[in-house]
Every structure is written in structure tokens, then in C-alpha cells.
Specification:
heterodimer, A: 222 residues, Rossmann fold, 8 helices, B: 474 residues, alpha+beta, two-stranded antiparallel sheet, 16 helices, 17 strands, binds adenosine-5'-triphosphate, binds magnesium ion
Chain lengths: 222, 474
């Protein structure tokens, strides 16, 4: 369902020298599959997620999602594809401060070209335990609640893939498990493939499939 | 959520900054609105000064001077014209068929800083101070009718009642024997010395009905003129918003009896003999019912003669407005427009200053699938909303300001101006073709301005590197 093939990415150093970050011959995720992606800091995990999401373009290679090679799409096409097929949750500051929890979730449906479905937004907020917090601004929510709102928003457009970049790293250990369970359960319910980037062994240990970036990434490290 | 709503939320989120920006925009727009309202009120008032009649007849000379002097009591009076010329406008005179009302206007005296005008009761009975606006008396009444010989028809019927009317005890028949008798044997009849004063004069001098005043000969302030016998105030005019609020009107008959007002310089006590009389101007209401071309016929005849000139005050006033007041209003407008431009720049500065926190928000929206075009639109809409809010607030503020200042302006200048006046303007290059309410020009102008200035931060939003923005603050 998600297939990354021969993807290469390098950044340019200030002196103009190219700095190779990624060279991924093959990385595959089946529909509805859940996996943890681990790796050292600066190894290129976030960079890979950006490429899968179509936020940045690889220098070479293919990224196929549900039969579409997004590297062949132009930018507007990738934006539209992302809106409809990919949910993204960051480590922190997922939400727009000026918008209520419900509005933040609705924002997830604002760019997909379809009519926003408020009932679904409310349903998902209730599902993540925020049924009474629709009108609350992010500042009135705890970090865990903000992450749960972000999860609801990531799922609101019924994506095929959910990308979560250290979604629980900013939450205390007690609530960390709660949010992680929520992400995994809702993705399972919605049959969404889930890639969770994490540094925490207690998080990765819960996944049957754990990928080390250093193993799938064949870049010649300096 | 629509892009509009996203833009609105972004504005709300930056409440204080947005409020300040809107405020400065509002001030600029309020100033524009106030200037335009004031200009339109001034020009309206200016034109209305001569609204009750079509033509002024006076001595040959500058047309503008005649108008300024007669309508606005401005500058020194010009030469007089002979009484015989005035008689041509009275029944039996050669211009009579073309004339509905002709009111004599005698200038040359003053009281404190105000003009004293010698005229007839017809000034207030027969003329209006604007289309359909009759003179009203806030207190008292019009002064008594002039002596019978001064103007024919309207006094003939008074003659029968002359003896029953205490304020017209000396009403005389037009034959010369009796008149002779008057100015040799009797004091001036009491109504000769009656006066009506304008509202501003009444307020500033404290004079009222029953008070008396002595005009000074010559209109200059200061001591060289000498005082005459007093006039008795019998009426105070209601405010008209015309320069007449700032004048004192006295019975022409009494005026003629003042020192220096007879050609010969002799002293008289009855009505001044015709051959001794002069008037400064004649205010003419043309009889269009009788002849549609009356105004042209009369003015052409007068101007071709050697005695007097006939001018159309509205025409002259429009010329003066365009020449002098227009440019002042233009300068004020340019200043106001600059304020609006500064306010627009402050919108840009505000958006730029918040660009750091926006970068993260833009990145989040992009991660949700927003295109570069969408984030560009949000920022453009934001600047548009700020400008429009400021514009509407400024519009209300401008009207409010004028509304509050209105009574004060009226009291000080005689310019009547209210909150619910909606000035219009002519579209440049289409003068005389298209006249629209200023909002129709102002609002699209603001939209255009917001678009131009909003483009710069919007382009920065458009160019945001999402990948980097997401990495930096995560
Ligand atoms: N826009 C960029 N320009 C230049 N270098 C970049 C850019 N983005 C990332 N890098 C570099 O690429 C490498 C990989 O970065 P990336 O953020 O993908 O690592 P990561 O595995 O997510 O690290 P962490 O676990 O700390 O989040 C880093 O060395 C980083 O400095
Ligand atoms: Mg990372």
C-alpha cells in the first residue's frame, strides 16, 4: 500500500557541498499495518516522513501510496493528495492557537476539496475523549489533550496512512501510554496504516514490526 | 472551514495588534470621510448663501466682489446704484414682467464686527434662504413695512388701515405733498427704526427683541465711523446656516435717514426723497413662469447698459469654490489618504512581525493539505479584512465625529453639518457624468490598497519552506 523505492535525498551544506541523508532502496508498509520507526537523532526519520507525505521531494526514487506515485505529481497535486490520504501528527504544536479544538479538527477537512463533515469531526473528538472540549482553545488543553486533538484531526479525512513523528515524546509517561493506545486503536478501527517515529524503547517495544532507519537507509554515512 | 474564517481567526488571535491596526486605518478613513463631509457641507452652505434668489444686480465692477460682498458680507461694499434703477424692478418698471421679487440691499454700516443691511420686509417675507426654506423668527417679528412710495403694490392695501396700525402711524399715500410734509415736520416713524438680527449676532452680542443698537458708518471695525440714532430690534431670525445669521437687518427707510446715506448729505426725518436714495444691490427672484428666458433677458439687458451689472451668484460661487476651497480640501484629502496608506503599511508590518509564529501555522496548514495558493489567500484575506474593518469603523467614526462636532461647527461658522450626511463625489475623468456616494469609491480603494500591501507578506507565506518550518519548532 505504501512503497518507497530507491529514494535518495541530500541537503546542500552552506558551502554548497551536497550532504546525502537518505538512500532507501525499499521500504514497504501494508494497508492497516502498524510499525515503529527508530533511529539515532539526525538519521533522517523526519526527512523520510516529509518525503512520504509529499512535503518535500526526493532527489530520486518513487513513493507510491495506494497506487499513486506522488513523486510524479506537481506540488498542488501532492497537496491535494496529502489532504485526502495522509494524516500527520507532530511531536508538539500541532494545533493552531486561534482555533478551538473542533475548529482545529475541521481545519483538517478544509483543504481536501470536499464538504467538511462536522458530525465526523465531533465523533472523532468524542472518540479521543474530548467530547466536552469542542470549544476549548489549545491553550486550555493539556499537552496530552492537544495530541489527542491532533490525532482526531489526522484521521478526520479517512487517510490511508498516518505518520506520527514522536507523538508522545512531550507527554508524561502516565498519559504517554494513553495517547499511544488511542492512536493505535483508532488507526486500527479506521484501517489506517501507522508509522510511529520514536526514541522511546518502551514505545517501540509494543510494536510487532520495528524498523531501524539505519538498516533501511543505505546512505554512505560520513 | 473557509479561508475567510481562517483569516478571521488569525485576526482574532492577534487581538491587540489587529485592533491597533484597525484603529489606525479607521482614523485615516474617518479623516477622509470628515474632510469630504465638511467639504460637501461647506460647499452646500456656500452655495446656499445665495440659494433664495437667482440674480444679484449691483454696480459695475468685479462680479466676484459683488457676490462676496452681497452674499457673504465680505470685503468693502462696492459702489451704489441709483434708486431709479431699482424702480425698474418694481411694478411698472421695465424689468417688472421678468421679476417675481426684487429686494433692495443697502450696505455701508456695521455693528461690532457684523454688517448692517438696509432692506425691506420682503427680504424675509418674499425671499427664501434656500430652496423651499422660508425665514423663521426665533423671537419677535419682521420689521414694519417700508414707506408707501418706496415700493408700490404690496403696500397699497395697507393704506386703508394705516390709522389703526400703531406701528405704521405715518403710512402715507404716494403723493408728494404728504411726503414733503413728513420729512420736514415729523420725526422718523417708529417702524423706520426697526431691525431684525441674525441668530449668530443675537447669540454673540446678547442682543434680543426690545434691545436697541446704533450702527457705525463704515464697515471697518474701529473708531473712525460715528454712531447714529438707535434701531430697535423687533425680531431675531432662526438659524439659517447662511451668512445672514451674522448680519443685522434694518428697515431701509431708517437706514436712509442715517448720516451719510443721502446723496446730498442733508439730514432728513421723513422718508428720504427718491432722488436722494441709492441701493448697493438688488436681490432678484426671476419670474420664470412668465418667461423661461427671463434671467438671460434681464441680465443681458443690464450688462449691456452702463449703469449696473447682473450676476448669477451660484455660478460665481461655484467658480470660487473650485478655485479656493477645492484645493484646500484636496490637500486635506491627500493628507488623509497618506494616513490610510500608513495604516495599510502597518497592516503589512503587523503581519510581517508575526511571521515567525505564522511560519509554524502555515506549515501545519500545509501538512493538512493546504496549497501555497491557499496560505497566500489567507494572508491576503487577513489584510483585506483588517482594511475593511478599519474602513467601516472609520466611516462610522467619521460620521460620529462630524455629528458630535456639528453643533459646534454650526455655532462657530454657520455651516450646517450633520452625522447623517452622505457626501458624494465625482469620478475623475467622468466629471458631471458619474456622481457616486464616497463609500463606493472609498471601499474599493481600500480593497485595492489592502490587496497591494497584503501581497508582500502573502508572498512570504507562499514561499514558506514547510519542511524547515516543521523541523525548527518541533
Ligand atoms: N532543510 C534542511 N537543510 C539542511 N539539512 C537538513 C534539513 N533538514 C534536515 N537536515 C539535516 O538532515 C539530517 C536528518 O534530519 P532529520 O530531521 O530527518 O533527522 P531525524 O532522524 O528526524 O532526527 P531527530 O530524531 O533528532 O528528529 C540532519 O542532519 C539534519 O540536520
Ligand atoms: Mg525528527
Amino acid at each position: 500500500m505504501l512503497l518507497v523505492e530507491n529514494v535518495q535525498k541530500s541537503f546542500r551544506l552552506p558551502d554548497g557541498e551536497p550532504l546525502p541523508i537518505l538512500n532507501v532502496p525499499r521500504f514497504e508498509v501494508a494497508a492497516g499495518e502498524q510499525l515503529a520507526l527508530v533511529g539515532g537523532s539526525g538519521s533522517g526519520k523526519t526527512t523520510l516522513l516529509h518525503i512520504i507525505a509529499g512535503i518535500s521531494r526526493p532527489d530520486a526514487g518513487r513513493v507510491q501510496i495506494n497506487g499513486t506515485d506522488i513523486t510524479q505529481l506537481n506540488e498542488v497535486g501532492r497537496d491535494m493528495f496529502r489532504a485526502n490520504n495522509i494524516g500527520y501528527v507532530f511531536q508538539t504544536f500541532n494545533l493552531l492557537a486561534g482555533f478551538s479544538a473542533l475548529e482545529n479538527v475541521l481545519l483538517g477537512m478544509s483543504f481536501c476539496g470536499r464538504k467538511p463533515d462536522e458530525a465526523r469531526a465531533k465523533h472523532l473528538l468524542e472518540r479521543v475523549g474530548l467530547g466536552k472540549r469542542f470549544d476549548h482553545k489549545p491553550a486550555m488543553l493539556s499537552v496530552g489533550e492537544q495530541q489527542r486533538t491532533a490525532v482526531a484531526r489526522a484521521l478526520v479525512n479517512r487517510p490511508k496512512v498516518m505518520l506520527a513523528d514522536e507523538p508522545t515524546a512531550s507527554i508524561d509517561s502516565r498519559h504517554q501510554q494513553q495517547v499511544l493506545d488511542l492512536v493505535r486503536d483508532t488507526c486500527r478501527e479506521e484501517s489506517v496504516a501507522l508509522v510511529v517515529v520514536t526514541h522511546a524503547p518502551e514505545v517501540s517495544a509494543q510494536f510487532t514490526r520495528v524498523e531501524r532507519l539505519e538498516e533501511i537507509n543505505k546512505v554512505a554515512s560520513s | 472551514m473557509s479561508l475567510w474564517k481562517i483569516a478571521l481567526r488569525s485576526i482574532q488571535q492577534r487581538g491587540l495588534g489587529s485592533t491597533l491596526t484597525i484603529l489606525s486605518m479607521a482614523l485615516g478613513v474617518a479623516l477622509i470621510v470628515a474632510v469630504l463631509m465638511a467639504y460637501s457641507a461647506v460647499s452646500h452652505t456656500f452655495r446656499r448663501g445665495a440659494g433664495g434668489y437667482e440674480m444679484i444686480v449691483g454696480a459695475k465692477g468685479g462680479a466676484a466682489q459683488l457676490v462676496l460682498n452681497t452674499v457673504y458680507h465680505f470685503d468693502r461694499p462696492i459702489e451704489n446704484i441709483p434708486w431709479t434703477f431699482y424702480k425698474e424692478f418694481q411694478p411698472g418698471g421695465r424689468y417688472a414682467p421678468y421679476v417675481e421679487t426684487a429686494v433692495p440691499y443697502c450696505l455701508g454700516d456695521s455693528f461690532e464686527s457684523y454688517r448692517v443691511v438696509g432692506t425691506t420686509p420682503a427680504m424675509f417675507d418674499r425671499l427664501e434662504y434656500g430652496a423651499g426654506k422660508k425665514y423663521q423668527f426665533a423671537a419677535g417679528r419682521n420689521f414694519g413695512a417700508e414707506a408707501a412710495h418706496a415700493a408700490g403694490e404690496e403696500h397699497d392695501h395697507d393704506h386703508d388701515h394705516a390709522h389703526e396700525k400703531p406701528r405704521q402711524p405715518t403710512m402715507v399715500s404716494p403723493d408728494d405733498d404728504e411726503e414733503e410734509e413728513h420729512h420736514h415736520d415729523h420725526a422718523a416713524p417708529p417702524h423706520f427704526m426697526e431691525a431684525v438680527i441674525g441668530s449668530i449676532v443675537a447669540r454673540t452680542t446678547g442682543l434680543g427683541v426690545g434691545d436697541t443698537f446704533e450702527p457705525t458708518h463704515g464697515v471697518t471695525e474701529g473708531g473712525d465711523g460715528h454712531k447714529h440714532e438707535p434701531f430697535k430690534i423687533v425680531g431675531v431670525l432662526a438659524p439659517t446656516g447662511t451668512p445672514n445669521d451674522q448680519a443685522l437687518f434694518v428697515n431701509m427707510e431708517g437706514f436712509f435717514l442715517l448720516d451719510g446715506h443721502s446723496k446730498s448729505g442733508e439730514h432728513h426725518h421723513g422718508p428720504l426723497p427718491e432722488e436722494e436714495r441709492e441701493v448697493t444691490a438688488i436681490l432678484v427672484r426671476v419670474n420664470y413662469a412668465n418667461s423661461p428666458t427671463a434671467a438671460m433677458t434681464v441680465s443681458k439687458d443690464i450688462n449691456e447698459g452702463s449703469v449696473a451689472q447682473a450676476v448669477f451668484p451660484l455660478q460665481i460661487i461655484s467658480g470660487l469654490m473650485d478655485r479656493f476651497i477645492g484645493p484646500i480640501a484636496t490637500i486635506l484629502l491627500v493628507i488623509a489618504v497618506l494616513i490610510v496608506v500608513v495604516a495599510a503599511v502597518s497592516i503589512v508590518v503587523g503581519i510581517y512581525n508575526s511571521m515567525n509564529e505564522r511560519r509554524r501555522e502555515i506549515a501545519i496548514m500545509r501538512s493538512l493539505g493546504a496549497s501555497r495558493g491557499s496560505v497566500l489567500s489567507v494572508v491576503m484575506l487577513e489584510s483585506l479584512l483588517l482594511a475593511l474593518c478599519g474602513g467601516v469603523a472609520g466611516f462610522v467614526l467619521g460620521h460620529l465625529l462630524i455629528g458630535l462636532a456639528g453643533p459646534y461647527i454650526l455655532a462657530r461658522t454657520g455651516v450646517e453639518i450633520g452625522a447623517f450626511q452622505f457626501p458624494t463625489m465625482e469620478i475623475p475623468f467622468m466629471e458631471g457624468v458619474l456622481v457616486v456616494p464616497i463609500e463606493l469609491v472609498l471601499l474599493p480603494g481600500l480593497v485595492l490598497l489592502a490587496g497591494v500591501v497584503g501581497y508582500f507578506p502573502a508572498r512570504a507565506a507562499y514561499k514558506t519552506d514547510v519542511s524547515r518550518a516543521l523541523s525548527n519548532s518541533a
